[in-house]
Amino acid sequence: MAGKPKLHYFDARGRMEAIRWLLAAAGVEFEEKLLESSEDLDKLRHDGSLVFQQVPMVEIDGMKLVQTRAILNYIASKYDLYGKDMKERALIDMYTEGVADLGEMILLLPLCPPDQKNAKLTLIQERTTNRYLPAFEKVLKSHGQDYLVGNKLSKADIHLVELLYYVEELDPSLLANFPLLKGLKTRVSNLPAVKKFLQPGSQRKPPGTEKTLEQARKIFKF
Q1: Is 72 within 8 Å of 22 (Cβ atoms)?
Q2: Could you say which of 14, 28, 82, 219 has the lowest number of CB atoms within 10 Å?
Q3: Is the distance from CB of 161 to CB of 99 less than 8 angstroms?
Q4: Where does the GST N-terminal domain start and stop, copy by copy (predicted)?
């Protein structure tokens, strides 16, 4: 029997959190090997574990996978979260990339210079309410089904719900005019595996703090 997937990253959301979410939603238990210093990262680099010298890295099925999208696609394929055919997969990829576009803006917000932060936050709020959430609301309205693609849970739904939690952390009012998205968030959050992941004490990471940012700077030397 294969061992649990092992996730190599530091103790923060960053680019690993979507992987944690997807594994959890698939009901897959995983272990974490948390980086605590630049030496920990150098060790992975020197022993050949990181193809492109960077994390996230996930050990799964005898492989050491890097590149977040490649990891997510493998997990989604393995656990039947990637549609039934090429057309469904194309839609899932399209919606996932939209989620990633807005998610990247939110992810990088803490790195924004203080004098630019308010402007960046305003831009995120505008893009959220005028571009991305209306698009996803329209998809759900167009077919009247429970999930984005094929009336079946896919990685697109999981990534979108993760994003909705981050949007709410920024400003709870941003979701107010999107009842179908709020319904999707509730539906996915109540799936037993996801519900467990959302409970205190799980491997889900909390919002970043100044301390998290300092740790990242220490490990990744930026």
Answers
A1: yes
A2: 28
A3: no
A4: 3-83
List CB contacts of 140: < 8 A, sequence separation 6 or more.
Answer: 148, 180, 181, 183, 184
More confident residue, 32 or 112: 32
Whole-model pTM: value is 0.96
Please enumerate in sequence order all residues whose Cβ is within 8 A of that of 184, keeping only pairs 6 or more positions apart, or say none: 140, 146, 147, 148, 157, 160, 161, 164
- 26 φ, ψ to 5°? -80, -5
What phi and psi, each to the nearest 5 degrees, are found at residue 128? Answer: -60, -50
Q: How is the beta sheet containing 31-35 ordered, strand by strand? A: 31-35, 6-10, 57-60, 63-66
CB 208 within 8 A of CB 110: yes
What the block records as the tokens of 72 is: 């997510």
Q: How does residue 11 score in pLDDT terms, banded at 50, 70 and 90?
A: very high
